[in-house]
Amino acid sequence: MGVDVAPKRTPEAIRIFTRALLRDLQGLERILAGGMIESGIRRFGAEQEFFLVNEAWRPAPVAVEVLEDLNDDPFTTELARFNLEANLSPRVLEGSCFSDMHAELDGYVTRVRDAARRHDSEVILTGILPTLTKSDLSLDNITPRARYHVLNEAMKAGRSAFKLRIRGTDELMIQHDSVMLEACNTSAQVHLQVTADEFAHFYNVAQAVTGPILACCVNSPLLFGRKLWAETRIALFAQSLDTRGADLHMREMSPRVRFGGSWLEKSVTELFQEDIATFRVLLATDIDEDPLAVLDEGGVPKLSALALFNGTVYRWNRPCYGISKGKPHLRIECRALPAGPSTIDEMANTVFWIGAVLGMAGKVPDLTERMEFDDAKGNFLAASRLGLGAGMAWLDGTSSPADRLILDTLLPLAEEGLSAYPVHRSEIDRYLGVIQRRVEAGVTGSSWALRSLSKLKRAGTKGEQLAALTSATVRQQNAGKPLVEWDLAELHEAGGWKYNYLRVEQYMTTSLTTVNQEELVELVAYLMHVRQVRHVLIEDNEHRLVGIVSYRSVLKLMAEGRTQAEAESMPVSDVMERNPVTVAPETPTLEAISKMRSNRVSALPVVQDGQLVGLVSETDFMPMAYHLLEERLQGD
């Protein structure tokens, strides 16, 4: 989807494009049958995705402006205005190839950082930005390119909402009205060029090793402040792009984001055939090439229709067709690895994945006879949920903890696989050494983040804690330090209270005390006493806010001298304040305070899309008052 196209969605355009797609598949089959796929060389490549953040460490929607400053082909847009992508140069597996790519990546990060700072923002490498909130995912922040708007409309077709339900330490259940949930993810993708003859075996090996490798690369434990999976991106990405209707639960339908359902048997065409047969065309564009005619004339077709369609099917290991110096080639693209924690960690992840694929492909030629596909898929999901704490099923029915499998089996395999190529030994030792140190220390990006939050648990608001986590990540990324050398985040890194009380959602209470409008008033009084709260929110059966009861209202009721019988039978609806004044999560703090004063209320329910999501009260403003008073006294 990084390729600029003029997408269409009309039924006729879809039919014309589908015809071109089928012709492209025929063209690929002829290319394979004719032995045209490049061989005798082993290349690899990578793609890097970035988040942009502002001085408050929140998403900065300035990607279009930063991209204009960069004005260079390696950089391109992503779905959201707070994301960018850079495509790194493909390299032959030889000499100092890894450190050369690492230097190129550092150069790109520096260039993006310099351009971002001209727009009062910063760049960060992270799987999911800790400070993201649901309000950041409005269509106001979608990148103003036609293909993204058309993709949104295509994904929305036939569904009322995009729904997430992820269970980890916490549970997240939300729904959203656009494809922008996908913008929560950033990754560091790896490409490995393989020949046509070896593709099926190498692809199966890639499927087998990706789970264990992901276990030590996890870097996305948080979404909207909730502690979920070790690599929450996997669940988030799968659900945010799931086009299946909820009413089709009795049918076996494949999700568009997928690990796969079986081992590959013979050829890369099996994957494309399966995808074309399984998934409808979402986007169409004009195709001016007849691949069969190009082949008849001795040329090499671009297979543009196949490339566009393939970009809308999100396999975690995806087949890719391309052309390099006039020769067609095949690649396996690993999309499972997250961005971050640092560029040296990312490069180590890349080297580990490439080496493990090469090593295992040579060492285990009979993989599909020695390992069940369901075990490879189960490993992938277990690593996503638990990181290094996952158990892994392995060859011949054996099993092992993820860390032991990596240290005892996969790292030696990766070393052996890379040693078969003319790569400098120092390259192999340096980057595989980063993985070894990380696993021996039992630390991942996710565990570092969670330990930092645990340390900050009793300091500051949740918004300040997440901002401190983001700031500490940027600081240590910019220092070029590998993860194992990182310090835990400190609260002062959040940037001060002024940046963390800008909007209501940064400090609102989300653990709410609510009752139904038909409940007893006595229950409200009991909850106020037990939970030490001064406001209880009243909902209907659809969790829509219908009223609020304050401590003052309960006192007034007692002062009126109601009989015991009246009090015992009185429903909440008789005393609640109906149609309370509310705010949205993205409401600026000054506007919320102004609403409180003008309406003479001490609390404001926070409502989004008709649903109650939080509460902000006078008590929440006390930290601001304290800091303001402290600054005033220090100034005097």
What does this structure look like?
α1 crosses α9 and α2 crosses α3. The protein is built from 22 helices and 22 strands. The strands form seven sheets. Strands 1, 2, 3, 4, 5, 8, 13 and 14 form an eight-stranded antiparallel sheet that branches. The chain has a four-stranded mixed sheet with strand order 17-18-19-20. It has 636 residues and is of the alpha+beta class. Residues 246-252 have low confidence and may be disordered. The longest helix has 23 residues, at 11-33.
Concise overview:
This protein has 636 residues and is α+β, with helices and mostly antiparallel strands. The protein contains 22 helices and 22 strands.
